[in-house]
Design a protein that fits this description.
The protein is built from ten helices and no strands. The longest helix is centred in the middle third of the chain and has 45 residues. It starts with a helix and ends in a 17-residue tail after the last helix.
Length: 232
C-alpha cells in the first residue's frame, strides 16, 4: 500500500509539473521584463519619417517638381539598402506611391527626348549633306563644329534631366511603359551616336519613342491616403 501511495504521489507531481510548464510557456499574457509598448516598437526611423514628409508634400499636385522626384528616388534607393532602417512593408508601400509619381518623370522624359531629337536631326541633316558630296562618304570625317554644336544644344536643353529621370525610371518594373521610356533615356548617348553613323535610322528611333509615349498612362495627381510610416 505504501509503494502504491508513493507511486500515485509521484505521478500527480509529474503531471502537475508538465501542466504548469505548458501553461507558463504558452500564456499570451505572460509579462516580459522591460518590454516596450507596441506603438514604440512600430515607430519608423527618423530618416524614413523625413522621407515620408517630403513624399507627402507632392500629394495631389497637378505637376510634381521633377527635380524633387529625382531626389526622392535616390533617397528611397539609399534607405532601401538598410532593412533595419527601412522595413520591407515601408519600402514596398512607399515604392508604390513613388511609382505613381514617377509617371510624371516618364512624361517629362518623352518631351525632353523629342526636344533632343530636334538637335540630333539638325546635326544629322548637315552631316548627310556633306556625305552626298564626299568622295568617300563611309569614311568621311565629320566636322567637329557640327558635333560640338549638337552636344552643346543637348546639354543646354535636356541631357542632364534625361539622364537623371532615366536613372529613376529603369528601377521601375522591367518591361513596363515607364521602364521602356527610361531605357530610351538611359541609352541616349549610344542611340545618338548610332543615328549619326547611320547604324540606326532617325525615323526608327522616333517610332520607338512615340510607341513608348503612347503606352504611358495619363498622369493624375496622387492621393496618399495610406499611412505607411509611423511618425509623430
Amino acid at each position: 500500500m505504501l509503494i502504491k501511495h508513493l507511486w500515485q504521489v509521484s505521478l500527480y507531481s509529474f503531471a502537475l509539473i508538465l501542466f504548469t510548464g505548458c501553461t507558463d510557456s504558452s500564456s499570451p499574457t505572460a509579462a516580459t521584463p522591460n518590454t516596450q509598448p507596441a506603438s514604440d516598437q512600430a515607430k519608423s526611423h527618423d530618416r524614413v519619417c523625413r522621407f515620408a514628409e517630403q513624399l507627402l508634400a507632392l500629394e495631389k499636385l497637378e505637376a510634381p517638381e521633377t527635380a524633387t522626384l529625382r531626389y526622392l528616388n535616390e533617397q528611397w534607393r539609399e534607405l532601401n539598402l538598410n532593412r533595419s532602417v527601412f522595413p520591407l512593408h515601408e519600402a514596398t508601400t512607399s515604392r508604390g506611391i513613388l511609382s505613381e509619381l514617377n509617371l510624371a518623370l516618364a512624361h517629362e522624359t518623352v518631351a525632353l527626348l523629342r526636344e533632343a531629337m530636334v538637335s540630333v536631326s539638325d546635326a544629322y541633316e548637315k552631316i548627310e549633306g556633306l556625305r552626298r558630296f564626299s568622295r568617300d562618304p563611309e569614311n568621311m570625317k565629320v566636322p567637329d563644329s557640327i558635333i560640338r554644336t549638337m552636344v552643346n544644344n543637348l546639354e543646354n536643353c535636356c541631357l542632364s534631366a534625361i539622364n537623371g529621370n532615366a536613372t529613376s525610371l529603369v528601377r521601375e518594373t522591367k518591361g513596363s511603359p515607364m521602364y521602356k521610356v527610361g531605357e530610351l533615356g538611359y541609352f541616349i548617348n549610344r542611340d545618338v551616336n548610332a543615328i549619326l553613323r547611320n547604324e540606326l535610322a532617325l525615323s526608327e528611333y522616333t517610332k520607338r519613342l512615340e510607341n513608348a509615349a503612347d503606352a504611358l498612362p495619363e498622369f493624375v495627381p496622387v492621393s496618399m491616403n495610406i499611412t505607411w510610416a509611423q511618425c509623430n
